[in-house]
Amino acid sequence: MISMVITVKLRMDTPGGVTAPEALPDVDNVLPLRRDTTGRPHLPGTTVAGSLRAHCATYDELLPEKTLFGIANDVERIPSSIQVLGTRYLGDTNGTVRHRTAIDRERGAPANTMLHGVTVLPAGTEFDIVLSWDNPDQREEPFLRALQEWRPRLGRGASHDAGRCSVVGLGHRKYDLTTVHGLHTWLHLRFPDDYPAPEPLAEPQRPLEPDYDVTFEIIDGLHISAGKPTADSTSDRPIINEVLRSDGRLVVPGSTLKGNLRSRAEYVCRVVGAGACADRRCGECHPCRLFGFSGESRNARRAKIAVSDSVIDNATTDLRTHVAIDRFTGGAREQLLFTDEVVTAGRFRLRVYALEPLDDVDRLLIDTVLTDLHDGLVGIGGRTTAGLGTVRITSEWTRPDLTTLADRLTGEIAA
Asked: What are the angstrom distances between the C-alpha of 306 and each of 156, 261, 335?
């Protein structure tokens, strides 16, 4: 028998990681990363196998993929030929916490008691993945080629462009277990010293190109809260509600941008009579099919698109104060002076990646929301009802023809 050992070096292009949903959130409502017995971040073999199976299913040369990754149903049971022996975390950090909140669809503002955090690993984090294949056949070459082209999205938050990875190294070695030397070598393999080292790819993977790449300019200020107010080191200074930062840089998170796209798309569909569910669970309306849905009576489905985080370039910030009003006296309420940090100028990019093929209606909805953002009909971030959040497209962009919007969304004319 011939046994082939394959090592793959995987690098995370965007922050992410596999969380531990079975672990109870801590007192700060933060979901932790999955960890191994030593407490280091862990990439489960099941996650790797599932992603590889889906990827290989797109290669005609590897079909039927069931003989590579197994199958179990009422008709037949075939074990997987490809085995995930394990993964090794190559980083030195325990991850950072990123906060986000759900939006109340009635108020159009952050929902109460919905602030939560997710622990993520930074971009650039690397894992070594070790695979084995007993008695590799004529599909060896196409499988190795498929590994070089593998671009998984691992862990939660795929629609926020979290956990997007690239293969940066590949190594493989065969052991003939019918010979004394081959069997002795295979039995005495020590990880990682004796395993085939993943060599850099001869043709490195090209950067993934987004389906939409639009640059916005901040017009009147942008405030996306970091989640927790920060007090100044001196006691006589007010508590400041700071804007979100990642690695010291001001960012517009992908979750915020995706939320803007979805909420406005839902509004557009309701206005033109196409319909949009209120709880994001129906799975039938246009927004559910484009942005994903969850439900009890049907299988949940992820979004067709991923919206990445965006760094704000040439950003300037300012502090702005406001006070709550006493509804009885009509004057300012005592001890309710608020100070917000606001990004008053800068540019950021909205990048949308297709996780599945987009049809004409999908693109029409995205183009419609981009138009409304450009025209100032909808804002981004917090305090949009108080003069913040207006942006304008400054990159090359063609305004779509929306004269047939209602008919196309309601299906009265073909898309």
From this structure: 12, 11, 42
